What we know:
This protein is α/β, with parallel strands linked by helices. The protein has a single domain, classed as 3-Layer(aba) Sandwich (Rossmann fold). The protein is built from eleven helices and seven strands. It has helices spanning 14-30, 42-46, 52-62, 76-99, 115-118, 133-145, 165-171, 193-206, 222-241, 263-269, 279-285, and strands at residues 104-108, 126-131, 153-158, 181-184, 212-217, 273-278, 300-305. The chain has a seven-stranded mixed sheet with strand order 3-2-1-4-5-7-6, sandwiched between helices. Helix 6 (133-145) links the parallel strand 2 and strand 3 (153-158). The protein starts with 13 loop residues before the first helix and ends with a strand. It comes from Mycobacterium rhizamassiliense. Belongs to the UPF0677 family. Its EC number is 2.1.1.-. This is S-adenosyl-L-methionine-dependent methyltransferase.
Amino acid sequence: MPRSADDSWDIATSVGATAVMVALARAAETASAEPLIRDQFAEPLVSTPELAGVREQVTAWWAGDPDEDSDDAPDPKHMINYQAVRTHFFDAFFAAAADSGVRQVVILAAGLDSRAYRLDWPAGTAVYEIDLPKVLEYKSETLAAHGATPTADRRPVPVDLRHDWPKALRDAGFDTGQPTAWLAEGLLPFLPAAAQEALFSSIDALSGPGSRVAVENFGVDAEKRREAEERWQVRRAKREARGQDTSFNPFDLWFSDEGRPECAGWFAAHGWTTDTVTALDEGQRLGRAPHPDQAPFTNSFVTATKP
């Protein structure tokens, strides 16, 4: 369903379903012959009975049809490659932050992110995971049922990022005097423009000297997005006529309001030292070179450090 200003969801609906989609891609990459990343928790997180419907919807979204343009239809291998590249980049970001002495981590809109369980965190590291209560509960309960334990001091922060999440974070023990490594991965399009601006401002205000932030910057402009959505509507009509499931529609979940701050420019203007790597360049470096015009490889990865 289309987004609203104060909507909510669990792991099987709305924005929660996109977390399932990307975890399915990580699970597929992990099971491949030569995986770029290893997320041993992705498969158990997406294999529960309550997610059977979402798995079917994502499979239907990815499925090609004989009468569809092969360059236009979603490609599951393309998504798997991108998620592998993206995950690899942000894993390396956290490793570098830990090597520099950072012991406080915040994962914004954590979804089915399993880094608190699978990365080799130094002793004394606290990993704060912010997301809606039902999403965090699902992950905690599912991984506990599989005997998984965090490799850091994992601290769930059940709050909507459109609400007063800084207070909830501080209430969970967050120390504003320590340097922090922040991650906003797969998040920005699911926030209204005003909430994105507020998010960046809060990160800046809460960050002690030496803090770092990593942001996935989505590179699809408004015109390209409209074109892609129009193509999807054509495919959707054909699929519905054949009786196929078209209930999973990521286009419904993005906020399209204007006025979003440009990520690197915003942090640079607030005194942070920034660097930007395109997903295309990173994919080519890692041997996962895509077609240059295919989303999501039009995205970029922005990192910044606070002096």
